[in-house]
Amino acid sequence: MENMMCNPGRLVLSNVEQRAGLNSPKISVPKGGLKHLNILAQRRSRQVLVQCAHQSASQTRERNTPSKIVATRRDLLVSGATLSFVSSNKLQAEAASVSDEEAVREAIDAAFKQTLPPQKAPSVLRLVFHDAGTYDEASKTGGLNASVRFEFDRPENFGLKRGFGPITKAHDLLKNSVAKDISFSDLIACGGAYAVRMTGGPSITVPLGRLDADKADPEGRLPAETLSPSELKAHFAKGGFSAQDLVVLSGAHTVGGKGFGEPLSFDNTYFKTLLERPWNAGGSKMDVEMAQMIGLPSDKALPDDEECYSWIELYAHDQDRFFKDFESAYLKLADTGATYA
């Protein structure tokens, strides 16, 4: 009679399993422990269930004795019990992992509460864009990997040390905490998300586990401030980003000193201002000069592009949609070029 025996930590194969091509006599605990054992046992049990089902269907006419029918059903029941056992252990392991990650995230937030005041939020957010902005889709190089800490002497990164200060201080604070192994690249991604949230923007939970680069990324990969909309779209496309991504991520310019509303308020004022185009308005010489100081040349050019304009108009009238799409685009940005442990 075909038989399968199972106890915690050991799975003995039945004849049914051997016919299914599972030739190993048992599953030994591999490197990685019970979590990997659970995954292997789950896969094996599912294979057995499927094999038994096929055999039961094809051999119904041949099996006329009650004992053989009982044996087949018993194989199925034991396989189900095995799957239940390993699934239970897997859930327990996953629950512990989730709990550990929550503790790490809480520690990171606590560190940023001490190191990242609201005034530094625009600089930290700019740091994220300049670190991730070196990504090139064709060569799969660059991206958010903390290489920016080797690139502060580049003209386009002038002033970025101000944004990296809170990251370094948080990294030092976390050395003796549950988040002691956190990377600089994780903290940059989390710092940008924290900056968005603390200034009134959406809450963004970025994945953890990035590895840091040990050298600078290639130069000349950040977009110039004078690019036209078509040039900007082409540049963003090299990083795997769409025109919508370009527009919604540009909405981060709403914080900082670029003249789009309150400097420490993350909202959709950026898009409302682009629709108003105050730099084209008349008035006194001072008014004209002040209006010209709003935003970057590339910001002012975006509404001139029909595709970009449609997204600008949408976000100007729907802040909730802006927040939702910004969260998705930020997660995409924070994942560009990232290498995970």
Automatic annotation (TrEMBL):
Q: Report a single Gene Ontology molecular function.
A: metal ion binding
Report the EC code(s) recorded for this entry.
Answer: 1.11.1.11
Plant heme peroxidase family profile domain: residues covered: 118-341
Top-rank EC class of the record's enzyme: oxidoreductase
Swiss-Prot/TrEMBL GO biological process terms: cellular response to oxidative stress; hydrogen peroxide catabolic process; response to reactive oxygen species
Which keywords describe this protein according to UniProt?
Heme, Iron, Metal-binding, Oxidoreductase, Peroxidase
Xref: Gene3D superfamilies: 1.10.520.10, Peroxidase, domain 2
Q: Which Pfam families match?
A: peroxidase
Q: Does the record bear Lyase in its keywords?
A: no
Which InterPro entries does this entry report, sorted A to Z?
Ccp1-like, Haem_peroxidase, Haem_peroxidase_sf, Peroxidase_I, Peroxidases_AS, Peroxidases_heam-ligand_BS
Q: Does the keyword Disulfide bond apply?
A: no
What cofactor(s) does the depicted protein rely on?
A: heme b
The Swiss-Prot or TrEMBL record describes its family as follows:
Belongs to the peroxidase family. Ascorbate peroxidase subfamily.
Question: What is the designated name of this protein?
Answer: L-ascorbate peroxidase
Q: Which organism is it from?
A: Cymbomonas tetramitiformis
